[in-house]
Amino acid sequence: MSSPADRQYSKSHEWHKEENGLIILGVTQFAVNALTDVTFAEMKGVGFKFERGQPIGVVESVKTTSDIYCAAPGEIVAVNEALINDPSLINQDCYGKGWLCKIKPSGPLSGTLDAKAYDAENPL
Amino acid sequence: MPLARTSMHQFHADNKAHMGEYAGWDMPLYYTSPLAEHKQVRTSGGLFDVSHMGRVKVTGKHARKFLEILCSRRISDMQNGQCRYSLVCNEQGGVKDDVIVYRNDDDDYLIVVNAANRAKLLKHFDDVIRSRELTVKVDDTTENTVMVAVQGPKVMDVVGKVSKEIPTLKKYRFAIKNLMIAKVVVSRTGYTGEDGFEAILPSSLFALAKSMILQDIDVSKPDAVIKPIGLVARDTLRTEAAMPLYGHELGEDINALSCGVDFAISLDKHTQERGERFIGQDVLEQTRSSGGPARKLVGMFVEGKRTARQGNPILIAGKSVGIITSACPSPTLDRCIAMGFVDAALTAPGTAVEIDTGRGMLNATTTAMPFYKLAK
């Protein structure tokens, strides 16, 4: 199973999908396999402005707690409210219904890989 | 160094396990989902590969005396066919490991030890045997045997179809069953808080034993009575049952009287028939006579959906009073639970504390343990 080709991937295992000038952010299947069952997901709120490398949220599972990063600086403009009641959406559909937040970027993506390169580095 | 593989490696691959390193072994972390596997064990049955644990035979003229010196708990009053949980302490009263001793006979025992401590204990055994000039043979059988745990409320019904004896075994008793020309050690023990058994057998016989135990159960079916369970669920199961784990609640630098397993520490064992003082006893006697350890293990319910993690500081009014040793969202209780060491004066149930996760503070309340207990 390969990662969707329509997005960019970071070494910290987030996917970034550019759409209408925004970045939709989520975690990859590789990350989900390492996390196992997600029990909690919380992004910083709408309006949170951040630099690259600054945590913008957290995902917790029975096994571990992981910070979430975006490969571009920007501002959170929407968060996936459905995850509050059902964080397992991340397990069920990490590239779709399990998206984490939408970001208005204030700079370009940096250090990301395309799907092919990401999958080569992170085989499932 | 390549990771060691258990004799069940192919079984894990066949069942699409997500593998990971644990104490130098390539082990199944989970097969489908740790939460589902946890619930499978609480409601039906699960099969665990626990072959990474060390299995060490101890025989010879001084075997019993040797174990008396090593173990924090009495050994000399054990009966043949009995298992006993004990600590192995260091000279400072810290914990080298927790073990299960199986007695075959007065001069013939098996000790099951943690994977991470196997090499360390083998050296310790050797040191003790030499320094005390004991006649004891130590035989590490870990790599030519396999150990499985089968745990859950429906397990005895299943196994009862192939063995009348196993369901009649009392807790912490074992029987030796013949399988082909080999012996299988079956004990009513486990590490989940559920009823069940553990079996130790020659590696080559795993496939045969599995087909006997599981009969026609296809563990890959979603509704199978017994399914394979990985180490992640094993950890949440033992945490709910408040069973300590070396590296978390137990450690070389942790006073054995802190760990919530006082039942396994007999400071008067040397006064009893054929008793011996055990290594670490001097310090533990001082600890007890001076009012007990400074910190003690306590259970906590954590408010909200966020869980604490090992190493998080525990605070009261901003002042550090302890540290988290294990924590997880409890699948059975549907709330977050934690264990940790706190100042001994603060262990009364109902004490409000805070936990600093490094990403924010969590409110928690101390509580009696275990968090989950099988109804009798």
Write a compact overview of the structure shown.
The complex is a heterodimer of chains A (124) and B (376). With 124 residues, chain A is α+β, with helices and mostly antiparallel strands.
The overall strand count of chain A is: 9
Number of helices of chain B: 8
Order of helices and strands of chain B: HEEHEEHEEEHEEHEEEHEHHEEEEEE
Number of strands of chain B: 19
- Write the CATH architecture name of the largest domain in chain B: 2-Layer Sandwich
Number of helices of chain A: 4
The name of the CATH superfamily of chain A reads RNA polymerase II/Efflux pump adaptor protein, barrel-sandwich hybrid domain
Can you summarize the main beta sheet of chain B? 6 strands, mixed
Class of chain A in CATH? Mainly Beta
**Inertia-based shape of chain B:** globular
CATH homologous superfamily descriptor of the largest domain in chain B: Probable tRNA modification gtpase trme, domain 1
- Largest inter-chain interface? A-B, 15 and 19 residues
Q: What's the multimeric state?
A: heterodimer
In CATH terms, what is the fold-level topology of the largest domain in chain B? Answer: Gyrase A, domain 2
Residues in helix, % of chain B: 10-25%
Structural class of chain A: alpha+beta
Distance between the amino and carboxyl termini of chain B: 46 Å
Description:
The complex is a heterodimer of chains A (124) and B (376). In chain A, 18% of the residues lie in helices and 34% in strands. Chain A is built from 4 helices and 9 strands; from the N terminus they run βββαβββββααβα. The longest helix of chain A is centred in the N-terminal third of the chain and has 7 residues. A 6-stranded antiparallel beta sheet of chain A has the order 1-2-3-9-8-5. Chain A has a 3-stranded antiparallel beta sheet with strand order 4-6-7. In chain A, a hairpin with a 2-residue loop joins strand 2 and strand 3. Chain B is α+β, with helices and mostly antiparallel strands and 376 residues long. Chain B folds into 2 domains: 292 residues, Gyrase A, domain 2, CATH 3.30.1360.120; 73 residues, Beta Barrel (Elongation Factor Tu (Ef-tu), domain 3), CATH 2.40.30. Chain B contains 8 helices and 19 strands. In chain B, the strands form 4 sheets. Chain B has a 6-stranded mixed beta sheet with strand order 10-11-12-9-3-13. The longest helix of chain B is centred in the N-terminal third of the chain and has 14 residues. Chain B is globular and about 65 Å long. Classes of the chains: A alpha+beta (124), B alpha+beta (376). At the A-B interface, strand 4 of A face helix 2 of B.
